[in-house]
Write a structure and sequence with these properties.
single chain, alpha/beta, 126 residues
Length: 126
Amino acid sequence: MSRRPRVLLADDYPDMVKAVRRLLDPDCEIVGTVPDGGLLLEEAQRLEPDVIVLDLSLPTVSGLDACRQLSQTHPAIKVIVFTASGDPDVEYQAMGAGAAAFVSKLSSLDLLTAIKRLCADSPSTT
């Protein structure tokens, strides 16, 4: 990978955003953070990140609905659902909505691995 993946974070908990930013900053360019799904859709259009890391529990537009819309309007953007839920049904719904990966917040180190894997598969980040 010749450049760091451009990542947009969507979570309504500021402490979680800070923690994820600290985790990803050495390897990724954090292009923005948003606290709700409506802003996520706007910023995805404006910033055109390589990856969006989103929580499912977002105000205004749920993470699941945002994922569905993003997969239709911006298919080149890889969406990673990053949630506290480990429920297989929730994972199934997220993947069905167009998520490229599903990572539990309990396994946050897996998030960077997922980003690197998805961006290695994408010609836009090489």
